[in-house]
Amino acid sequence: MTIDNPTTAMQLLDRLKAALPLPARLTPELQESLSRANDDKPVEAGCTIIGLRYMGDEGGIVCKLDLGLAIDNEAHVSITHLRFDARLPLARAIAAYQKHRVKRLRRQPS
User: Fold this and answer.
1) How many whole angstroms separate alpha carbon 102 and alpha carbon 46?
2) Given 46, 59, 81, 104, which residue has the most CB atoms within 10 angstroms?
3) What angle do CA 39, 50, 94 make, to 5 degrees?
């Protein structure tokens, strides 16, 4: 069973790339994980997506984040670990992709 619809994922990726840089928020779990990976430095919830890549059906859309000057390491994370302002023009399309992807991942055999 495939996770992503390749056509839909690539169309969204093209639209997202055209809109870069994009503001986003980290989930609390991702924020904590990034803090641990950076010597327990505090990581702000707000970030900016500065790059995008499609990592195939298994990886989905991956975002390169700008987390500000306080963070030493680059972060590349799945778009499913980010939240977006509902007023963002692509917010509905992103939310639909995230929902579909998470639903399909849950159906995958362990």
Assistant:
1) 22
2) 81
3) 105
Q: How many domains does the chain have?
A: 1
Q: Are 12 and 93 in contact (CB under 8 A)?
A: yes
Give the tens place of pLDDT for each residue, 9-18: 999 999 999 9
Domain that holds residue 54: 6-102
Which residues contact residue 88 at a Cβ distance below 8 angstroms, ignoring those fewer than 6 apart?
Answer: 22, 23, 94
Torsions phi, psi of 17, nearest 5?
Answer: -60, -40
Q: Is residue 17 part of a domain?
A: yes
Within-domain flag for 92: yes
CA distance 94 to 96: 5
Give the ranges where the chain is alpha helix by DSSP (H).
6-18, 28-37, 56-59, 91-107
Phi and psi at residue 60, to the nearest 5°: 70, -155
